[in-house]
Amino acid sequence: MIDGTNIAIDSTKLNSFEKPKPKSKLKDDGKSPNWGKKKDTDGNDIKWFGWKLHILADCKSELPLAIEITPASVNDSILAIPLLKKLKEFYGNTFNVKHCIMDSGYDIKENYDYIMNEFHAQPIIAYNKRGSFAPPEGLNERLHPICSMGYELVYWGKDGDYLKFRCPHVLGKVDCPHGSSWCSSSNYGYCLKINYKKNKRYFSFPIRSSDEWQEIYNLRTYIERCNSRLKEYLNTDNIRSAGIKKAKTFALLNCITLVAGTIAVNVNKSLPKVA
Fold first, then answer.
1. Average pLDDT of 147-172?
2. Do residues 98 and 5 touch, judged by C-beta distance below 8 A?
3. Is 198 a member of any domain?
4. What confidence tens digit (pLDDT) does each residue in 79-111 have?
């Protein structure tokens, strides 16, 4: 059932059993419940008092492979590596992970480095603008390189660790007023090669904003289904005991129940039918 080729990481809110307290009276010790805030699918802010359940799930089976519980105030981005380390510790080389899929909350350099260096996989992480009003220098809104006239260079394939981009005027994509000679004296036109493994945040293979990249990123919805099943069917967001240890135990039991139930259903479907 579990494929492990594509894995996704996300967090979901859990309300604590403890009564909410003002921030001035909270213990910031990493073990006590705290206030959290995140945006829903419509971009609205959601606030709650309690915990965050961080889940690493398989995109094929929609089953959790590793989890962690933290106070709600903890940033999502720093939990990706601990979850990936758990996956490696628990399962070793059982899975051939190719893509690690996350939303923009995990868009930090450390996550790209760990995924590519330790897992030899491709991070598929949404770009976080972090309040900037313009894209990085030399790139457009799609994070594709542009020429000196501001036209998007045409992706022309991959050569080893290098992504190749060519002049759009030479390829007939635009009509540049300066022609191709503005950037290059060659008939081939200006050609840019970028080592995507050394520019992990902006570049990937498949390249950002391509149909293939978006298709892989859309697999992130499978972890949202995992979150939904845990909370709607198994009542994970109804913690009835105080403390982070009990909250984690409760979440683990629900994950075990989800996995066991999935196994039972699939075994039943695979049994031969007797007339």
1. 93
2. yes
3. no
4. 999 999 999 998 888 889 999 999 999 999 999
User: By the 8 A CB rule, do 54 and 79 touch?
Assistant: yes
| Structural domain span for residue 50 | 6-132+212-270
According to DSSP, the residues that pair with 12 across neighbouring strands are 53
Question: In 3-state terms, what secondary structure has residue 246?
Answer: helix
Pairwise CA distance, residues 120 & 100, whole Å: 10
Alpha-carbon span 181 to 148, nearest angstrom: 12
Task: Return the CATH number at 116.
Answer: 3.30.420.10
Judged by phi (left if over 0) then psi (alpha if -120 to 50, else beta), residue 120 lies in: left
Q: Write out the two tokens for 79.
A: 């939990």
Residue 265 lies in a domain: yes
Nearest C-alpha neighbor of 227 from the set 73, 16, 76, 52: 52
Quote the number of domains for the chain: 1
- 182 inside domain: no
Residue 157 C-beta-side C-alpha neighbours within 13 Å: 2
Q: What is the pLDDT of residues 57-84, one digit of tens each?
A: 999 999 999 999 999 999 999 999 999 9
Tokens 């022609």 appear where?
A: 179
